[in-house]
Each structure stands twice: as C-alpha cells, then as structure tokens.
C-alpha cells in the first residue's frame, strides 16, 4: 500500500511514461541506431601553498577548558619526547611544518555516448576516468577503487571509472515535449540552489508562442529503503530517503530580458549521522530531517554595453536536527532532536560593462542571511536567526574563497550560509585568442562567528571575533590555441582576516596561494 499521495503520483507518472513509450515504439518505423561521441581530455599541473587550515580541526561543542588545556599540554609534551627520542637515535623527525608547498599533476578524460534509435527515443551514457594524479596519491593514501585512484608506475590498475550520466530521453517533437529518466545533471539558475548529478525524472515542455519553457520533476538524493540493519533479511523501512521535487519556468518576453522562476522542495527523513574529524578529534556530528523549500527568481537584462543579472532566493521550512543533552563538560548524555523553523534568504547580483571589443569590467556581490559557524550549544548557526540552508549548489565566485574547480577552496556553494563575497574583475583580450582576467574580492560573514566553544582563538587568549574573513587577488590567462584546444593559467592569492581565524578556530597562518595550468582538448 502506498504511504503518500506523492508516492502515488511518482509511480503513476512512470507507468504512463512506459505505456506511452511502448505504444509509440510499436508505431515507429525501425531506423538504424545513430551513435554520437563527445568528450574531452584534460591534464593539469598545480603549485599550491598555505600556512593556514582550510577547514576547522577543533570540536565545535561545549567543553571544560581546564581539562582541555591539561590534555593539550600532555599531548604537546608527548610530541616533544617522541621528537627528542627520534633525534637521539638518528631517526627522521616526527614533526612536520604547519605549512605546505605542494606541486602535483593530474589527468582526466570524460566520454559521452549518445544512442539515437528514432525521433522519439535516445539514450546517453557518460563516463569519467580520473582525475588520476601522476604517481598516485602517495604512501598509504592510495586505494584500488575510485575515479581518482591509480597513477603509480605498475601494470596493476585501479578501478578508476565513474558513471556521470545514464539516462533515456523520450521526445515528442510535435508537442515540444521531452521526458528524461535516469542519472542526469539537475540544475537551477546559476547553480545557486542545485547543480548536481542525480537519478530521477525531468519533464520539459516548450511553449513557443509564449517563448516559455516549463520544467518539472524529482530526483532521489539518497534512499534507505533496502537497508537491513537488524540482519533479519527484511528491509527495515520503506519510503525512507531524501527526495527533491522542483519546477522551473523560463521566459523571455523581450529580446533583452530573460527570467526564471523556480522552486525546489526537499523531503528528507533519513536522519543519517555524519561525523567530521580533525586534528583534535571529532569536530562535529550532525543528523537532520528536512522539509525545506527554496523559491527563486532570476533575471538577466541586456542593454547594449551593459548586462545586469539579479537573483533572489527565499528559503523556508522545518529542520529536526540532532542536539543531544550534554553534561557540564560538554559530554553527550542522551540523544534528542530539536525542531527549528527556517526563514532565510540568498541574494546575488552582477553588473557587466563592455568598454569595447577587447575590454569588459564586471562587479558582483553574492551572499546569504544568517551567521557562519556554530552556536554555543554546538548546533549550526544556520538553524537560528534567519539562517539560510543550502541544498546541492555548485558555483564558483573566485579562485580560492568560493570555488569547486580544483586547487584550494575555503568554501563551496554548500558552505556559503551566513557569508557574502563581493568583488570586481576585468577581462582583457590581449591578442586574438588570448584573454587576461584580473580580479579582486573580499569575503565577509553576514554576522561575526561565535567563539564560545573555540579552543584556541578565543577571548581567554585575547582574540576577538570579526566579520571580515579576508581578501583575494586573482589572475587568469586563457589561450584558445585551436578550435578544440585551450590552455588556462589560473592563480589566486588569499589573505585571511580575523573572521576566518575565528571560524576555523586557529591562531596560525594567513596565506593561501594557488597556481595551476590546464590543457584541455575537446572532441
């Protein structure tokens, strides 16, 4: 028996899809299968350096300061004694500098194969090999499974292929309708809410008379329907998982304007526990059940030499999050879940000016409401005070502060709750296919992170919190050497502020820098 109307609608839609497909396939004249190959090969070289953490290494929960200091001093003494013993024996040092200067290379290939059997059906499979690091991932850090494994000089190879896409397109050209089922890429405007591959259904209908496209569907982010935790050979629960439902309406009533109205709904009842560990033990333990909405409106306006985009998102709903009872020393006594009402927002705007055919300048600001980090009770700050919760975003604002393309990344789109970044960059065409990009950015917390549970960066050690997270300089150089080949040099230099140190709970370091060169061939 079906548990909810949503489950009935999903199954009914799939049944209709299959029946209509069978009917049309019986009517369609058999054609030869057409196969189309597309893909790219990429190789990169990195030089990275930093003297500050890129993620928090201390626990975010309440603690007994005197006990912590006693244990910390004992650990420091043990490290000193181990180092002294190693030096007396002539052995290598047991300590390494708290900074890094790293150079490495990696390579990757993607391949998409599209099979078209008729005007109604086509299937696509997309696979990726790599990124494989030259020489492997290092001593005791390699595995035999995963897209980034392998690379060592040996005939034995790792299983390093992953499936990016695996879907079927059902098309009704006469009705301007497409249904896509399987593993595919789900997106929202600019990737601010969703930019992630997932398994599900996407329905698209073009209304050409109104210059409008309507999309809708759902995808399964994670499911737990087949789990048998008690080992009695029966699945424990049905309809337990994380599902995302959405619609998008894209319009362009005027030639110089584009609009997109959309909503995403997350129905998540998994409550799976996620632990994050660091140098000083367990950093955080989270477990949530979410019923959340994201409603967005994206607009793009083009006025001869100017282009202006403005994008707003409203996030609301409820979250039941793990917040256990703790004793005076912060130790967990009993688990409990508290309910939080979420009301947050995200804002993004960008203004571009084309000075001439060779020079353009763009200013931008992007951020969300709330506070970054954690509260005094150890819960995430985005559960409180107009905090904004992220879904599955994927976007890049600058090369280091907010990025997901490679090298260092202090934050990704998923971590931008309670943060905002603004900046300016210019694109300069130096000569034909050679383009130089220069950028400057500043990163802030919408509110200053709390430091009540910090072990090092706290008021007892005479440090104070701040909303200023840092500033960044970027320099990129893109050379389109051939029609199907481009070379990109990308670099960034980030100087940390006190807000980042408060967020990471660290008193050391200031700098992150990166430089990498990419050569990419498309076919």
Structural write-up:
By secondary structure, the chain is mostly beta strands. The protein has 3 helices and 22 strands. It has 2 domains: 34-51 and 100-168, no CATH class; 52-97 and 176-228 and 238-522, Beta Barrel (Porin), CATH 2.40.160.100. 10% of the residues lie in helices and 50% in strands. The radius of gyration is 26 Å and the shape is globular.
Query: How many domain regions?
Result: 2
In whole angstroms, how far apart are the ends?
A: 49 Å
Kindly report the CATH topology of the largest domain.
Porin
The stretches of 5 or more residues where confidence is low (pLDDT under 50) are 18-29
Rg over CA atoms: 26 Å
The helix fraction, in percent, is 10-25%
Please write the string of helix (H) and strand (E) elements: HEHEEEEEEEEEEEEEEEEEEEEHE
Q: What class, by secondary structure content?
A: mainly beta
CATH class of the largest domain: Mainly Beta
Relevant terms:
523 residues, Porin, two-stranded antiparallel sheet, 22 strands
Give a quick rundown of the structure:
This is Porin. This protein is mainly beta and 523 residues long. The protein contains 3 helices and 22 strands.
Topology readout:
Elements: H1 5-27, E1 34-50, H2 65-88, E2 100-116, E3 121-133, E4 161-172, E5 177-187, E6 195-207, E7 212-223, E8 241-251, E9 257-268, E10 274-278, E11 281-286, E12 288-303, E13 306-322, E14 325-326, E15 332-334, E16 337-354, E17 359-368, E18 419-431, E19 434-445, E20 468-482, E21 485-496, H3 498-504, E22 511-522
Antiparallel strand pairs: 1-2, 1-22, 2-3, 3-4, 4-5, 5-6, 6-7, 7-8, 8-9, 9-12, 10-11, 12-13, 13-16, 14-15, 16-17, 17-18, 18-19, 19-20, 20-21, 21-22
């Amino acid at each position: 028996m079906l548990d909810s109307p949503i489950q009935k609608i999903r199954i009914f839609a799939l049944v209709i899809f299959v029946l209509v497909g069978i009917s049309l396939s019986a009517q369609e004249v058999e054609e030869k299968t057409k196969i189309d190959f597309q893909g790219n090969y990429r190789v990169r070289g990195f030089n990275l350096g930093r003297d500050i953490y890129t993620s928090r290494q201390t626990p975010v929960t309440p603690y007994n300061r005197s006990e912590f200091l006693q244990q910390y001093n004992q650990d420091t003494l043990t490290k000193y004694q181990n180092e002294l013993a190693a030096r007396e024996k002539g052995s290598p040092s047991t300590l390494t500098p708290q900074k890094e200067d790293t150079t490495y290379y990696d390579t990757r290939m993607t391949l998409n194969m599209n099979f078209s059997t008729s005007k109604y059906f086509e299937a696509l499979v997309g696979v990726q090999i790599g990124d494989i690091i030259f020489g492997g991932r290092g001593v005791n850090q390699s595995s035999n499974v995963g897209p980034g494994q392998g690379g060592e000089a040996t005939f034995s190879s790792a299983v390093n292929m992953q499936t990016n896409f695996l879907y079927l397109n059902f098309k009704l050209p006469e009705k301007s309708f497409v249904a896509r089922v399987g593993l595919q890429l789900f997106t929202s405007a600019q990737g601010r809410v969703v930019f992630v591959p997932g398994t599900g259904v996407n329905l698209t209908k073009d209304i050409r008379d109104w210059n409008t496209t309507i999309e809708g569907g759902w995808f399964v982010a994670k499911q737990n329907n087949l789990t048998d935790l008690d080992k009695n050979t029966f699945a424990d629960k049905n309809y337990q998982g994380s599902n995302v439902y959405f619609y998008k309406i894209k319009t362009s009533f005027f030639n110089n304007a584009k609009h997109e109205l959309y909503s995403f709904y997350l129905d998540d009842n998994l409550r799976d526990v996620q632990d994050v560990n660091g140098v000083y033990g367990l950093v955080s333990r989270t477990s949530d059940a979410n019923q959340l909405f994201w409603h967005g409106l994206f607009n793009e306006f083009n006025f001869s030499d100017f282009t202006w985009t403005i994008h707003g998102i409203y996030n609301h709903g409820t979250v039941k999050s793990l917040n256990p009872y703790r004793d005076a020393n912060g130790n967990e006594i009993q688990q409990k879940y508290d309910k939080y009402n979420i009301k947050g927002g995200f804002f993004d705007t960008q203004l571009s000016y084309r000075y001439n055919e060779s020079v353009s300048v763009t200013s931008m600001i992007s951020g969300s409401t709330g506070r970054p980090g954690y509260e005094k009770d150890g819960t995430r700050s985005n559960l409180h005070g107009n905090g904004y919760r992220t879904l599955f975003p994927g976007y890049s604002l600058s090369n280091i502060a907010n990025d997901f393309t490679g090298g260092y990344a202090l934050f990704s789109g998923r971590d931008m709750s309670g943060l905002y970044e603004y900046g300016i960059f210019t694109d300069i065409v130096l000569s034909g296919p050679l383009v130089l990009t220069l950028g400057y950015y500043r990163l802030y917390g919408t509110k200053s992170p709390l430091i009540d549970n910090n072990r090092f960066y706290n008021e007892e050690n005479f440090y104070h919190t701040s909303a200023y997270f840092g500033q960044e300089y970027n320099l990129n150089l893109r050379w389109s050497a051939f029609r199907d080949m481009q070379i990109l040099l990308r670099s960034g230099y980030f100087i940390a502020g006190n807000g980042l140190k408060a967020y990471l709970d660290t008193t050391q370091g200031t700098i992150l820098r990166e430089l990498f060169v990419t050569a990419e061939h498309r076919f």
